[in-house]
């Protein structure tokens, strides 16, 4: 059966992704040009600094998206060991002197003019690895030692390497996705409950162990108790939401981006969207995520292979975690974790990995559509025979 570019692609998913990513580039510029003038990296004094960098990443991500949406996702099963090794190497390089520091953490690799955050790529790598290994363990997934435990050792090592950066938000997100994939793989409830208790205990222990982390996790409940330090970012975000109202002050009209709101173009870009475009702008963003996540769930349900189904659901859940963590933090419903808003916030690594992840979803969808078309063609041939 010939490949049809029009019929075999999930256009609702694809168009929604590019609409949201394009909107993200626009909002990165709107929320960052003041910082580009006064606080640009290296004292650039260039209002277009962040726009130019994000636009380049968007073009690069578009190329990768077009490649991976036509890439046979089944090949990732064979590439899984290589991806896993590359994940460990990249995380190790960050910690042994090749990493660059920012915001008090060592999370980036500086490769000439390119600055990458390996943990962003590792998140996708772990989804691919877990989907591959647990799709092969369906026969004995009910056995903890043989079925559930071995991949958890690998996840534990990755968790430790990411925590050493430190990056508590990303490490926690990987653990949550791991639990979700194990659940979908058909693990027994006693095993799931045990893993849930261990994970919760680990989360609480690590949160309490570091004073700065504990303050960040608790300050969201009452930011006004420390308005000039731990509560500053959230309070300024509240002001942005209140200032925007229903329709906003207009594109470019934000006051909070005038160096009042920290991380206005990254973690708290949704607050600037709310201030400039109002609740309607926020609803547009949430609506786009709703379409992407809904299409991802449908793709996972319709996929006939265990690997493809687990891979689709893993990508969807990973994306959902990031969206919930970011929106929850900006709205004051969850602690501030430093997780950016996918496809919208400034950050090349995050944009690139998110676009690749959704391109893999598009590839799985393309396979589903072609299988459905083939089945219909066969049924028509039988009827006409």
From TrEMBL:
Localization in the cell: Cell membrane
Catalysed reactions, semicolon-separated: [GlcNAc-(1->4)-Mur2Ac(oyl-L-Ala-gamma-D-Glu-L-Lys-D-Ala-D-Ala)](n)-di-trans,octa-cis-undecaprenyl diphosphate + beta-D-GlcNAc-(1->4)-Mur2Ac(oyl-L-Ala-gamma-D-Glu-L-Lys-D-Ala-D-Ala)-di-trans,octa-cis-undecaprenyl diphosphate = [GlcNAc-(1->4)-Mur2Ac(oyl-L-Ala-gamma-D-Glu-L-Lys-D-Ala-D-Ala)](n+1)-di-trans,octa-cis-undecaprenyl diphosphate + di-trans,octa-cis-undecaprenyl diphosphate + H(+)
Residue ranges of the TM segments: 12-34, 55-73, 79-98, 144-162, 168-185, 192-214, 277-298, 310-336, 348-365
InterPro entries: FtsW, FtsW/RodA
Pathway: Cell wall biogenesis; peptidoglycan biosynthesis
Protein EC: 2.4.99.28
Keywords for the protein's UniProt record, in alphabetical order: Cell cycle, Cell division, Cell membrane, Cell shape, Cell wall biogenesis/degradation, Glycosyltransferase, Membrane, Peptidoglycan synthesis, Transferase, Transmembrane, Transmembrane helix
Membrane topology per record: Multi-pass membrane protein
NCBIfam families linked to this entry: ftsW (TIGR02614)
Family according to the record: Belongs to the SEDS family. FtsW subfamily.
PANTHER family per the UniProt record, alphabetical: CELL CYCLE PROTEIN, PEPTIDOGLYCAN GLYCOSYLTRANSFERASE FTSW-RELATED
Annotated function: Peptidoglycan polymerase that is essential for cell division.
Protein name according to UniProt: Probable peptidoglycan glycosyltransferase FtsW
UniProt source species: Alkalicoccobacillus plakortidis
